[in-house]
User: Fold this.
Amino acid sequence: MISGRSSLTRSRFGAAAAAAALAVTGCMAGEPAEPPHPVFSAPKAQQPAKALEATLATDAFAFRQTMTFELGTGEAVLTSEGRMAPKAGHAVGTRSWTFTKRVNTAQREALLGSSPAPSPQPSELGVAVDGTDVLVRPGAAPYWIRHAPSDFTLDGNRNVEYLAGTQVPFGGTLLELLSSGGRVTKSAPARTGRTYTIRTTAPAALALFPKDLRDMLHRGTDEAAAPLPVDLVLRADSEGRFTRASADLGALEARESGSLRSLKGIRVELTISQHGTSVPKLPSAARQVPARDAIREIDELEPGACFDPHTGTSSSRLVVSRPCGTKHGARILAQPELTTTYPGADRARQQAETACDRAVPNSPDTWRAESAERDTHWFTWPTDQWDWNEHGAARATCYTLTH
Assistant:
């Protein structure tokens, strides 16, 4: 508190003199008052939404996000990176997984997705978004598979749908959580810009994951209880555009019966840079194949047909149909019929193995000569009673991997 009459008098005089000086300076210079900041002048609760608008108003920006899964004593890291052009509805980038030695085979397959090959889906997936269409490139495939919205209903393709995103044209980033209705709990000035903490819920955070992975996680709380909170920390630059985001998704837990039951936590870090860069170029039309023409369930193909076992989805039944005159990963050798009534899981596998062991030696020598492993074949079969007669008589599919 200011005490003493002389101090109070000087304070009033100083304030009055300063106000007069400002008035004179303004009049002499003819300068208008500084306009309000498009983001930071808004009410605190509205600033994150305004910052998202400012971020999306740029022609394009680069992004890099790491999502770290703590699995017992091991770690699996999903890195998503590339460039987005929100106004054009385009994005081009990759999603790639890395694993420490203590992540086991079952955990890798749960995260990568299974396939008809002995290995899971590739650890790297090229992703391009063109409006409502999503293009994926599994591993080093020489083509991109274009999925239109009507293709997302195919069994196993629902994991592709989330890649289109809702807030931005690349799904699975922390920017998706801004539509979850969270509230701003902290707002503070930074050296250049501002930081925010938004509290949302664990159920809302499930939107960051593809369907199969969402099914392996739960909310970390009883349905009747209040959803556990998740804090999203955001940083905006001096223009109000987002540059960083992070979240601890420890409220999410894995189901006890699943391969990820040792999950201890999930951490996410996102950086955004190069605001205003040029719009990323989509893959050329010559390198694209429509999913409706190329993606098939393996038992829809005929003996002699060629395919690639990796589709970029998570289904062990889906393959990419390929002309045999082009490079391909596998060829179907035979499709012997099985019993008309589903015999149960163990008996079905035994039937399929026996049927293929008998049928494969009778397939053409030229087909078997393509095998990457001499005298080796693989087989698959309908895995439950719902699939048993889906395409007519139940059949085993016997095939060889060619590379």
Summary: The two ends are 82 Å apart (CA to CA). The mean pLDDT is 86.
